[in-house]
Specification:
Blueprint: H1 2-7, H2 10-19, H3 24-36, E1 43-46, E2 62-66, H4 93-100, E3 104-109, H5 143-150, E4 156-161, H6 167-173, E5 176-179, E6 199-204, H7 207-217, E7 246-249, H8 251-254, H9 261-276, E8 280-283, H10 289-307, H11 325-336, H12 339-352, H13 358-381, E9 384-388, H14 404-408, H15 415-420, E10 424-432, E11 435-442, H16 448-462, H17 467-470
The structure holds glutamine (GLN).
C-alpha cells in the first residue's frame, strides 16, 4: 500500500480517504516517516504525532507549511536565527483555513530568511537541496516547500510569494505554484516581509491540487484589512482546450539577455502546444518591465526595513543580554539577522530617509503604477500573458550567493505581476539539460479560475512527468 499512497495526488488522497479506501492515520504516518527522513534539509520541524483532525474536504491530507506562517505552539522561525525556537500563540489564517477543512500540519519548511532570496541559501538553518540534482538550489524563498513536494516528502505545501517566491521554486523543482491576486488570501499570521506585496499560495504536484488547496485558502478575514471576498467559488479545472483564448507574449522581455537557450526552447514549445490547443498567440510589450526589478528592490526593502523593526530582542525570539537597552537591541539584531536581511534593512532605511524618499521610494511607486497599467492594457486584448517563470533552470549551490544582483535577476519575469497584485501560476513545461523549466501564466485580478483552467489544459497536453522525483524512495 505504501507505494500506492506515494503515487496519490492530494486530490486523489482526499478522495481515497472519503471513500474509506485509505485510513487517515496511514496517510499521515507514511508522510511523517518520509519527512522525518528528509535528506534535502527541506524541513525545519516535523510532527511526531498525528494531530487531532476535523472532518472536511481535505480530511487527513498532510500539509507542509513554510516557516513564515505562524503555527500555534509549533516553531515558526522564518528561516532566521532571530526567531530561533519561537513558538507563536496563534495560527495564521491561511493555515487555519486549511486545518478547518481537515488538512493536518505535517511539518514546517525551510526558507530564505524572512523570504528574502531566490535560492534558499539565505536560511539560518542551511541550504535546501534540489531533488533533481543535489548540487543545485531548489529556488527560493519557498525552497523547502518546493523541494518537499517535488521529492514526495509531503503531498503539497504552503508557500509565500512577494516577488516570485512560490513560482520560481516551483519552476526549479518541476511542480506547480500559484501566486494569488493580492488580498485573496489573508496575510494574518504570515511573518511580514513587504506587506503590499506578500501573498500566500499552494505548491502542488499538479494543477488540480492547486485548485483544491486554493479553494480553501481564499476568503475575507477580519484580521487582515487588505483581504477581500473572492468573487466566485474556485472550480476544479477540467479544460482540455484553449479555443478562443488569446495569449500575449512580451517578446522583447522574454528574448532579453540572460535567458538560457534551453529555457527559451521549452517556452517556444509551450507556445506551439498552446496554438495546437486552439489559442491565438499575440505579441505585447511591457515597457516598464525593465524598471520593475529596480522598483521592487526599493519597495520591498523599504517595507521590510519597517516590518523588521519589531525584532528587537524584547518581544520575540533571540535576546543578546547586554548592560544597557541600546546595546541589547544592537547586539540582538547584529547576531540575529543574516547578511541579506541586513543588506535589505540598510537599503530600505536609506530609501525611506528624508531627502531620498521621493527620489527612491516615490519613483519606485510610480513605476509600480505604470507596470500595473501596462498589464491592465494588455488584458484588454488578451486573456493571459505568458513567460518562462525563471530565465534559468536550477543553478548550482554557491553560484550566485556572492553576487546579489545576479540573484535578483532570477525574479525578472515574476516581479511585474507582484507589483501589479495580479495572479500567476507556474507549471512545468519540460526539461532543459535534465532539469525542470517553468511556464508562467498570468491573468488579471481574480482570474484564478481561468488561469487554473488554461494551466490544466496545457499541463495535460505537455504531459510533464514529475513522478521521477516524488515517486522514488525518500
Ligand atoms: N527573490 C525575491 C526577493 O528576494 C522574491 C522573494 C519573495 O517572493 N519572497 O525578494
Amino acid at each position: 500500500m505504501a507505494s500506492d499512497v506515494q503515487s496519490l495526488s492530494a486530490t486523489a488522497a482526499a478522495e481515497a480517504i472519503a471513500d474509506g479506501g485509505l485510513a487517515r492515520g496511514e496517510l499521515f504516518e507514511h508522510y511523517r516517516r518520509r519527512a522525518a527522513a528528509d535528506k534535502l534539509n527541506a524541513f525545519t520541524w516535523v510532527a511526531d504525532v498525528e494531530p487531532a483532525q476535523v472532518d472536511g474536504a481535505l480530511s487527513g491530507v498532510p500539509l507542509a507549511v513554510k516557516d513564515l506562517f505562524c503555527t500555534e505552539g509549533i516553531p515558526s522561525q522564518a528561516g532566521s536565527k532571530i526567531l530561533a525556537g519561537y513558538c507563536p500563540p496563534y495560527t495564521a489564517t491561511a493555515v487555519a483555513n486549511l486545518e478547518a477543512a481537515g488538512a493536518v500540519v505535517l511539518g514546517k519548511t525551510n526558507q530564505d530568511e524572512f523570504a528574502m532570496g531566490s535560492s534558499n541559501e539565505n536560511s539560518a538553518f542551511g541550504p535546501v537541496l534540489n531533488p533533481w540534482d543535489h548540487s543545485r538550489v531548489p529556488g527560493g524563498s519557498s525552497g523547502g516547500s518546493a523541494a518537499a513536494v517535488a521529492a514526495g516528502l509531503a503531498p503539497w505545501a504552503l508557500g509565500t510569494d512577494t516577488g516570485g517566491s512560490i513560482r520560481q521554486p516551483a519552476a526549479l523543482c518541476g511542480i506547480v505554484g500559484l501566486k494569488p491576486t493580492y488580498g485573496a488570501v489573508s496575510r494574518y499570521g504570515m511573518i511580514a516581509f513587504a506587506s503590499s506585496l506578500d501573498s500566500a499560495g499552494p505548491l502542488t504536484r499538479d494543477v488540480a491540487d492547486a485548485a483544491l488547496c486554493y479553494r480553501h485558502l481564499v476568503g475575507r478575514d477580519g484580521n487582515d484589512a487588505t483581504s477581500v471576498v473572492f468573487p466566485e467559488p474556485i472550480e476544479t479545472p477540467t479544460s482540455e482546450r484553449l479555443d478562443g483564448i488569446t495569449i500575449a507574449v512580451p517578446t522583447a522581455l522574454v528574448e532579453g539577455e540572460g535567458i538560457e537557450p534551453g529555457v527559451r526552447q521549452s517556452f517556444e514549445a509551450s507556445l506551439e502546444t498552446a496554438r495546437s490547443l486552439g489559442a491565438t498567440i499575440i505579441d505585447c510589450e511591457i515597457p516598464s518591465a525593465r524598471y520593475a526589478l529596480s522598483a521592487y528592490y526599493v519597495i520591498a526593502p523599504a517595507e521590510a526595513s519597517s516590518n523588521l523593526a519589531r525584532f528587537d530582542g524584547v518581544r520575540y525570539g533571540l535576546r543578546v543580554e547586554e548592560s544597557n537597552l541600546d546595546a541589547m537591541y544592537t547586539e540582538t539584531r547584529h547576531d540575529g539577522f543574516g547578511a541579506e536581511v541586513k543588506r535589505r534593512i540598510l537599503i530600505g532605511t536609506y530609501a525611506l530617509s528624508s531627502g531620498y524618499y521621493d527620489a527612491y521610494y516615490g519613483r519606485a511607486q510610480r513605476v509600480r503604477t505604470l507596470v500595473a497599467r501596462e498589464l491592465a492594457a494588455i488584458f484588454e486584448r488578451a486573456d493571459f500573458i505568458v513567460t518562462p517563470t525563471s530565465p534559468t533552470v536550477a543553478f548550482g549551490l554557491g553560484d550566485r550567493i556572492a553576487d546579489p544582483l545576479s540573484m535578483y535577476l532570477s525574479d525578472l519575469f515574476t516581479i511585474p505581476m507582484s507589483l501589479a497584485g495580479t495572479p500567476a501560476i507556474s507549471i512545468p513545461s519540460g526539461l532543459s539539460e535534465g532539469l525542470p523549466v517553468g511556464l508562467q501564466i498570468c491573468g488579471p485580478a481574480f482570474s484564478e479560475n481561468r488561469i487554473l483552467g488554461a494551466a490544466h489544459a496545457l499541463e495535460q497536453a505537455i504531459g510533464f512527468d514529475g513522478s521521477v522525483t516524488w515517486g522514488g524512495a525518500s
